[in-house]
Amino acid sequence: MVLHEITAARADVLARIALAAKGAGRDAASVQLVAVSKVQPDERIAAMLATGQRVFGENRVQEAEARWQPRRAAGLDVELRLIGPLQSNKAREAVALFDVIETLDRTKLAAALADASAKAGRAPRLYVQVNTGEEAQKAGVAPIDADAFIASVRRDYGFAIEGLMCIPPAEEPAGPHFALLAKIAARNGIAKLSMGMSADYETAVMFGATSVRVGSALFGMISGSAVSNVL
Question: What is the mean pLDDT of the chain?
Answer without folding.
Answer: 94
